[in-house]
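Working notes for the structural subgroup meeting. M.R. asked for a predicted model of this chain before we commit to crystallization trials. I am recording the input and output together here so anyone reviewing the notebook later can reproduce the run.

Input as submitted:
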Amino acid sequence: MSLKIVTIVGARPQFIKAAPVSRALRREHQEYLLHTGQHYDRNMSQLFFEELQIPEPDLNLEIGSGAHGEQTAQMLVGIERVLQEQKPDRVLVYGDTNSTLAGALAAAKLNIPVDHIEAGLRSFNMTMPEEINRILTDRISALLFCPTAAAVAHLRREGITAGVHLTGDVMFDAALHFASLAEVQSTILKRLDVAAGAYLLVTCHRPQNTDHPAALSAIVSALVASQERVIFPVHPRTRGFLQRDGLMDRLKSCERITLIDPVGYLDMIQLEQHARLVVTDSGGVQKEAFFFHVPCVTLREETEWVETVADGWNRLTGANAERILAAIQTFTPPAGQQAHYGDGHASEAIVRLLDATG
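Returned structure, recorded in token form:
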């Protein structure tokens, strides 16, 4: 039985996750792709749709940035209207953004089953908006597609067992599919004049780092003190805070540090694959570094992706200059990794489970 499914996305990580699922889904089912517009910069939105070969969204709500309450409220209004018009059989949401929560709430209030891809993740840090979003979304989801065994265990401890499935990680599907394409199509290393294995790749966007001058200053201090070649794609929000805190000039005055605008997915995974080390506060970039066997330093005190730490490929430093610098200088991961994130066919597993709901 063919299903009509509304898929809701709004941010870069969700575009990546949606790419392999959408390909698998559209072989048998009707998908209406709703983009909330949470990421509205071309390099963080439209370019990803083009590179990942995701069909053009059927509608872009163009919500843009704003305070959490304002942004989520506007999304709720727009998503509810679409769901009332489209009358889908199910709604599919990804991850832990405001788009995720708004989509889940709108669907649940209309008695439309919500299916959550990347369910069960927990940082156990309730100051993170993402933690609130993922917990609430899991509570009202009919099917919960978990990327790891740890995610299943988190849900079990919370008393959630119905509809829970261990599928593997759809981001691993995407990484496997697009890594070889990036090797052929991306020219980012040549454009930046950097050699494979001879630079640090840095990303930083989480409010716990960007919104606090002491934290952002500590991160900048560690990068400058590292005396390493650094490639830093700067998130639009981060750029604003660097300028506010007088840190942009400090970074620009260090000739080893190259600041660039956000890049597309193919360029990003090319940079990840060939970095000596990744320094990030992004959950997705942590995982992609792990997929590509690149050591990662995470600018947080906790991570949802505990497997990367347990296997010795990810070191948590928080926004502490001494700890960040020590990790950059001394971190050497072990030789092996375990297959925590599935076999690269999570998307097909998810579609089979949706088929079974018939």
